Amino acid sequence: MTVHRVAVLVLDGVTPLDLAIPTQIFTTRPETPYEMTLCALDSRVATTAGFALVADGDLEQVRAADTVIVPGYAPLLRPPEAVLGVLAEARDRDRRVVSICTGAFALAEAGVLDGLHATTHWKHIDELERGFPAVTVDRDVLYVDEGDVLTSAGVCCGIDLCLHLVRRDLGAVVANEIARGLVAAPHRDGGQAQYVPAPVAVAGEASLSGTREWALERLGEPLTLRVLARHAGLSQRTFMRRFTEETGTTPLQWLLNARLSRARELLETTNHSVERVARDCGLGTPANLRLHFRRALGTTPTAYRRAFTH
């Protein structure tokens, strides 16, 4: 595989968890082409946790990178001009520029987000919108993909965005394998709400994770809202409310995303016909599979198979 150079550009006041996400996901593995370097304007960088870290790379490694990722940082002061210049240069040279959480403010300061949609941590959405009127701020999403410019919402949404990048680069099988290693959800669509009021079940209530696992084992079957609610032992209205509280999306949208993910894996790892893939993942017909592939991925099942068959 051709080496894909990833520069993680850390700013003073970097959030350690935001930083850990891309360094873990893009670390060197036999099955991936990524070569990741931690970069900074100065080699020693302060963190929000009170300790400092040492970056091996500098801005020259950022200039040489294929993908530049800026983790979140605080306080949200304007970064040094040298940093803004290298980010603007990466954008001008059609390199992929990515932010996690409040890293979006650095991209905005560099003009990288002008004329584009973007997001950041929900606590700082208003600040981003007020400070950068040339940016269209999307409030209720996990991440925004504008092609070569991508931004994620708060902290752990960076996991979803980085796995999305791996999925774009290498396909669903590799992305799902990395997700399993992280014990992370294999795929959450960017359009889900970033602020989930109750991401885990509150005391005294049972999580619906058992029903989700049950459904994942039966994607080829006709799964309706009524069937899912019955399995959970809840009314449809209560099931819908609690499912959305736990996942940030509706049951049927979650089911569609799961079926598309299964279809991608089948296309990558089997020689099954498109008709069989559509049936096995629960989308029914080749026409329905093509429709949802076109809407979600901008391609056809056949073209996807050609691109990601290993």
TrEMBL record:
It comes from the Bacteria. Keywords: DNA-binding, Transcription, Transcription regulation. The keyword Secreted does not apply. Pfam families: DJ-1_PfpI, HTH_18. The keyword Membrane does not apply. SMART domains: HTH_ARAC. Residues 209-307 form the HTH araC/xylS-type domain. InterPro entries: Class_I_gatase-like, DJ-1/PfpI, Homeodomain-like_sf, HTH_AraC, HTH_AraC-typ_CS, INH-QAR. SUPFAM superfamilies: Class I glutamine amidotransferase-like, Homeodomain-like. This is Helix-turn-helix domain-containing protein. It comes from Streptomyces endocoffeicus.
